[in-house]
Specification:
Helix 1 packs antiparallel against helix 10, helix 2 crosses helix 8 and helix 9 packs across helix 10. The N and C termini lie far apart (46 Å). It is globular and about 60 Å long. A two-stranded antiparallel ribbon has the order 1-2. Helix content is 70%, strand content 2%. With 304 residues, it is mostly helical. It has eleven helices and two strands.
């Protein structure tokens, strides 16, 4: 049937794979936004810059750290970067929350949006001044090079790893927030912080760590993305608008909505590139417009 449309099965499978990879990043990044908004009521426009920061820190650790330390043979291991970089990006997020964002919690969402948008511009501007606009990348780890023969197509090992790692982190986060006592404390702390504090729980610290975790998810996504996409100062700005659309479609603050919608929209985008390539850049926003008209709270959001 696809041959009648001038489409080969290999082209279809290839675009579905690309869509699934993009959907994994959409899910991971929108999850971080949903965690921050759902727990802190902050629209974190810095998320794209923090994603870019994670990719740059990974590139620096794997390619530049040795020369900077005077030991050209030294470099940060990729697997270590998956742990160290999110911790560093999350620590920066904690500093931002402690020094700036905590003063805006009782104000309108617009103030948090404007502040985080300004921080994003500062971070992106600093990296553009230091690095320029050209892109960089680093090699895929040796164990993840090559491809797996699935019979109908070859699946690159690294892309398979990205999908598995992203989904594992996404659903583990959903489980912790929705199915554990810690998650119940987090949800209760946003709805009635005084009551939670009465039980001896440090709500301000919990909020700070929640923001740091949401930011760390962006850093983790940046490490995964660096061997696939070009590492450049504008890589976060190119992606964050689509990710915000994913969050709006899934429902602001909905953890499961962000994961499912991110994956689904990645696949829809991939199929659109096969059947109608001209619409692939706008299909997500068309879907967002339709969803907002039919269900303003999003597919998984709660109507107020």
């Amino acid at each position: 049937m696809f041959e009648l449309l001038g489409i080969t099965p290999q082209a279809l499978y290839s675009q579905l794979l690309v869509g699934l990879i993009n959907g994994s990043f959409y899910a991971l990044l929108s999850l971080g936004l949903a965690v921050i908004f759902g727990m802190l009521n902050i629209i974190n426009f810095t998320h794209g810059a923090q994603y870019m920061l994670g990719a740059f820190l990974a590139w620096i650790g794997l390619t530049q750290l040795g020369p900077w330390l005077g030991s050209p043979d030294f470099s940060l291991n990729y697997w270590a970067a998956l742990i160290v970089v999110p911790l560093l990006v999350g620590a920066l997020g904690i500093v931002i929350e402690r020094t700036m964002l905590r003063h805006l919690y009782k104000l309108d969402h617009l103030y948090g949006l404007l502040l985080t948008f300004g921080i994003a511009l500062i971070i992106e501007g600093l990296f553009r001044q230091w690095h320029g606009s050209s892109g960089k990348s680093y090699d895929i780890p040796e164990v993840l090079r090559g491809a797996i023969n699935l019979g109908f197509m070859y699946l690159p090992k690294y892309r398979a790893w990205v999908i598995v790692a992203s989904l594992t982190v996404c659903f583990a986060t959903w489980f912790v927030i929705e199915r554990t006592k810690l998650g119940s404390y987090l949800r209760a702390g946003t709805e009635n912080p005084r009551l939670v504090q009465a039980f001896g729980i440090n709500v301000p610290l919990m909020i700070t760590l929640t923001y740091g975790f949401g930011v760390a998810l962006a850093g983790f996504a940046g490490v995964l993305a660096a061997p696939i996409f070009t590492v450049s100062p504008q890589m976060g700005a190119d992606l964050i608008i689509v990710v915000f659309a994913v969050v709006v479609i899934g429902g602001m603050g909905s953890i499961l909505g962000s994961i499912v919608t991110g994956l689904a929209l990645g696949l829809v985008e991939g199929l659109t590139k096969v059947f109608y390539p001209e619409a692939s850049a706008v299909v997500v926003f068309v879907i967002m417009s339709i969803v907002l008209l039919v269900r303003p709270a999003g597919l998984f959001g709660r109507e107020k």
